[in-house]
Amino acid sequence: MKAPATLSAAPARNFGIDCLRGFAILLVVVHHLALPFRLPLGPSLLQAWLPKRLLNAVSFNGYEAVFIFFVISGFLIATRILERDGGLAQVDLRRFYRARALRILPLLLLTLAALSVLALFGAPGFAPDGSRQSLAGLLGSALSFTFNWYEGRTGWAPAGWDVLWSLSIEEAFYLGFPLLCLWLPRRLLVGLLLAWALALLPLRGLVPAADEVWWEKAYLPGMSAIAWGVLAALLARRWRPSRRDARALALFGAFCIVMVLGWGELVHRHLFKSGMYGLVIGAATMLLAFQAHPPLPPQSRRFPGLGWLARMGSLSYELYLSHMFVVLAATGLYRALLGKEQAWTFTVYLPVLLLCYGLALVLERFTIRFTRPRSGAADAAARPAVLT
User: Fold this and answer.
1) Rounded-to-integer distance, Cα 226 and Cα 232, Å
2) Which of 28, 101, 148, 251 pairs with 1 at a CA distance of 20 to 30 A?
3) Domain coordinates of the chain in residue numbers?
């Protein structure tokens, strides 16, 4: 058996996976910009030139993008365990939990400190309303990875805090996943993951649709999407499609995702409400293709103009936790200057994306001293896909 890599071994980045992550985080940021304006990229000027379906697909699929992140997260974490430890049953608990903590906690604690200061000053979008939520409750649930459960009991959290729900699902999964890998026989573990993955829609159906917050943010459906990623990683370990087959898989996966994002109502109506399955299957098949035959980076000139998207993917955790600071400041400034005038809202998007990107770069420099304390090499198992 091949010896596992040392802790200092730096994994090569996969350009295709980074682009998929970049696409997902782009959808999240744009979605959170579109919500305050209630209209996609401005109501009039762009709609005169671009199809409404395209604008809606770009503007209002942030929630769906998070499920793509869940799949990527499961795939990357499981792949790294397989590469380092030789198999899921050989996972090194100490190294796994240390890697997750080093990657997650420094930026999370910094983010929570900033959120708390803004909440104490009563900043709109950051301060709890005081009736059902409190600063102590928000902090406690974020640190215990029960933020989604806290929202389910108390209602929507302030916009600046709301992104923490998906991190709670991911980290709750990864607290228990390596233990299952050690305790369960391989076939039983795979069977459990497969049943969990296939139960995505039934698990969502367990929550009444009227309970909107918990229906969107319950643990089990999100973990089901992570299970799809883990299963894809196990399959990629055993099966390497040809380059031609990998290209077909990537195109099929992209087709599934585009159909759900752009024609979700048709998928819901005519394909047995299977939109979430389309997302996770599409993401999983693209990951299989990219793992088997990683697309060459933009320097090869085969993918010109996509380097920025891949870089956003590599910064997805920093972008995810920090972008609401920029989004809420930008939307507040726009309303202060232009009031309810909506025609020019589309001009906000590019500057906000650039500012979010710049802030993420700064935060990466901050956290890199924690994730690379001695060796100077990043730990891919510690990097969430959005986090993830």
Assistant:
1) 10
2) 101
3) 15-382
Distance from C-alpha of 200 to C-alpha of 220, rounded to nearest angstrom: 8
Alpha helices in the chain (DSSP H): 15-37, 52-59, 62-85, 93-120, 135-143, 147-154, 164-183, 186-198, 200-205, 212-217, 219-238, 243-262, 264-270, 275-292, 307-314, 316-338, 349-371
pTM of the predicted model as reported, rounded to 2 decimal places: 0.91
Distance CA 285, CA 214 (A): 29
pLDDT tens digits along 21-55: 999 999 999 999 988 876 555 444 566 677 788 88
Q: How far is CA 167 from CA 63, 64, 70, 192, 276, in A?
A: 13, 15, 10, 22, 19
Give the length of the chain: 388
- Cβ pair 295, 303 in contact under 8 A: yes
Q: Which amino acid is at 2?
A: K
Residue 79 neighbours by CB under 8 Å, 6+ apart: 233, 236, 237, 291
